Amino acid sequence: MIPERPEAGMVFRYSFLWSGEAAKGQIEGVKDRPAVVIVLLAEGDEVVVAPFTTRPPAGDDVVVEVPQRVRTHLGLGDDRSWISLGTLNRFVWPGPDLRPVPGRKPANALYGYIPQKLLDAVKALAMAELSKRIPGLIVRRSND
């Protein structure tokens, strides 16, 4: 099951395409991972999403750590994780890259929602990064 309409704060399983992968000509991410809707565009049909990662941040990585209670609520396990804002994906919902969460019956792409306070922190950092107009920050995905 794929939610009919996206909502800010929604976390779903997604084939996230990092900017380095896109630069190599890949059209699909190497790994399916949780991603969160941070911005709704074009009357809610287009979204900007940020990936979750368990790779600890290094140097100037722009991330927001996901608290343990939120990871537990979403069913993400005990490993520390971060929402990364170094690459964002933009696509028309639902797009072809949503995937079922492993072990969910019935099949469902939705993990759940992050709390508003965490979403606000992620959005503030995302807007700061977007204001820098960094080339490759947003990878546009198509329905092809």
Helix/strand layout:
Layout: E1 10-15, H1 19-23, E2 32-41, E3 46-53, E4 63-66, H2 68-74, E5 81-84, E6 88-92, E7 110-113, H3 116-131, E8 138-140
Parallel strand pairs: 6-8
Antiparallel strand pairs: 1-2, 1-7, 2-3, 3-5, 3-6, 4-5
Description:
The chain has 144 residues and is of the alpha+beta class. It has a domain at 10-50 and 86-140. The protein is 19% helix and 31% strand. Strands 1, 2, 3, 4, 5, 6, 7 and 8 form an eight-stranded mixed sheet that branches. The protein is globular and about 40 Å long. The relative contact order is 0.26. The mean pLDDT is 92.
Quick overview:
The chain is of the alpha+beta class and 144 residues long. The chain is built from three helices and eight strands, in the order βαβββαβββαβ. The relative contact order is 0.26.
Distance between the termini: 20 Å
- The rounded Rg comes to 14 Å
Helix-residue proportion: 10-25%
How would you describe the shape?
globular
Secondary structural class: alpha+beta
Strand percentage, roughly? 25-35%
Question: Overall mean pLDDT score?
Answer: 92
> Major beta sheet, specifics?
8 strands, mixed
The number of distinct helices, counting runs of at least 4 residues, comes to 3
- Total DSSP E strands: 8
Which characteristics define this entry?
144 residues; alpha+beta; 8-stranded mixed β-sheet
